[in-house]
Amino acid sequence: MDTRRLLLIFFTAFLILVAYIYFFMYNKPHQDVHKAAPDFTIEAMALYNEFEDDEVVANERYLGKIIRVEGRVLEVEVRDGKPSAIRLDVGHVLNSVVCELDEVYPRAIQGLEMGDKVVVQGVCTGYLDDVILNRCGLIRRVDDSK
Predict the structure, then answer these.
(1) What is residue 94's predicted lDDT score, i.e. its pLDDT?
(2) Which of 48, 84, 112, 133 is deepest in the core (most CB within 10 A)?
(3) How far apart are CA 118 and CA 139, in angstroms?
(4) Whole-prediction pTM value?
């Protein structure tokens, strides 16, 4: 075989491999975090305290895991007229657990007010003075009247 034919075969095989990988990675279904079983269930204040006490250990334990967090709403952040995040109170003036909302579940947040007790589930992505959870969905509102 001459060099030209060998290069053509190699290049064609490479393109087929790249197309195959791209197709299956692009069409890979995303995990529905809202409906998945949580890896951890914890109070917002306890989660924040673990990150504040030892960020390295907390990252090893929670990073990339699905976490169900219960806490009081400190603020509902709104972007472009839609709720984008819920900040849960952790007892510090400037810090909180920030739950970035998944766009699939925005209606469940309507009517949520400061002080409401909620259970939110999402994927922990780290700690930057706040504990950050992404792709969150509201699991339920907790009735305090009992």
Answers:
(1) 87
(2) 133
(3) 8
(4) 0.75
Q: How many residues does the chain have?
A: 146
Give pLDDT tens digits for 110-140: 778 888 999 999 999 999 889 999 999 888 8
Dihedrals phi, psi of 73, to nearest 5 degrees: -70, 125
- Would the pLDDT of 145 be above 60? no
**Under CATH, which number does the domain 40-142 receive?**
2.40.50.140
- State the pairing for strand pair 82-89/66-79: antiparallel
Are 67 and 124 spatial neighbours (Cβ–Cβ below 8 Å)? yes
Domain ranges of the chain: 1-30, 40-142
CB 90 within 8 A of CB 48: yes
**Residues ≥6 apart with Cβ < 8 Å to 134:** 100, 122, 123, 125
Tokens of 126: 């780290």
